[in-house]
Give the backbone structure.
Amino acid sequence: MFTNFVADYLMNYNFDEIIDRSSSHCVKVERMSHIWNRTDLLPLWVADMDFKTPPCIIAAIQKRLQHEVLGYTCPHKGYYDSIVRWIQKRYGMKANKEYIQFVPGVVPGICAAVNALTEKGDKIIIQPPVYHPFKQVIEGTGRVLVSNPLVFDGSRFSMDFAHLQTVVEDCKLLILCHPHNPGGMVWTQNELETLAQICARHGITVISDEIHADLTLPPNKHLPFAMIGETAQQISATFMAPSKTFNIPGLAASHIIVYNHALRKKLFHYIRHNDLDMGNVFAYIAVEAAYNHGDEWLAQLLAYLQANIDFVDHALQNRMPKIKAIRPQASYLVFLDCRDLGFATQEELDHFFVDKAKLALNSGALFGDEGKGFMRMNIASPKAVLEQALNQLEKAYNTLN
């Protein structure tokens, strides 16, 4: 009822528009004072975008507001249908309503999976450098963190299966970041097949965080872990969301897709009996609007992000060659290899970006020891903002010996 409107598919979206977010209580701006004790930095850290949320989503929310009761809200048929159509259209992934469970964010969902599927003291594998809440969830729930570090060849991180075989014994879960954050890799079919075989052989359930899947940059293709084959499908839970894709993380709307009946029953039961299955009044209609009407907006966004990546990479190569951009195959997050700058510690590198370049980026150490010497840069901003950031960085760069 609340999303029955016609989207403007012929619209050209303006990603060059600079939007002042300082009055919106946004984390990217307001948390700088807590983290860096200053407010004069250019914020290129938190993984949300500085672009307007798609008009189709705003229109759906505005239409819902015409009904002036903002009460408890439940998922409806249109919500489930939009997810089913989206994953079928983009990935050939078939599912039905029974396979899908709403959760208020991927990280809360992963925390629920850890609690539902393991006991305190159980071992859980992650592959650093990787999205830091994985580690927080494992340690915060009293589980044991097992590290299977990725291998970096100078341009791409890859999985170390030989090492994985040495640590896999008695582990219960592996949390997969797919596509990878912060490295930006889209894992290959061969990598995923090998991972599935090892995990299946050792009775390990794979929690596949695929929140950046829709931000895969052409010509790369995202292959959901559950689409690798029957084995992968039966040992995994897939976590997805439109939040990164359509810049609606503040609506806290994510979903889990599980094919294995026993796994689904155990995980969904935990979520529903711990009151984690209800979204806010705008969550479901935002998902429905995004997946039903957001294709053209997303296509234009991906083209703009690709141009921004090209711009940053070219500027670094030509003006600051000791900083190397790892070109992401997915997402708007660029991992910067800064090891050639010669800083002795990560703290010195962080100081350089904050106090010399006046840029707020994520420290590579946040993602594990394997991220030391790196910085993560969010390039989902108007090009003019990136120009300013690179000019500030170049000025600081030129002060180095």
In short: The two ends are 63 Å apart (CA to CA). The longest strand covers residues 171-177. DSSP finds 14 helices and 15 strands in the chain.
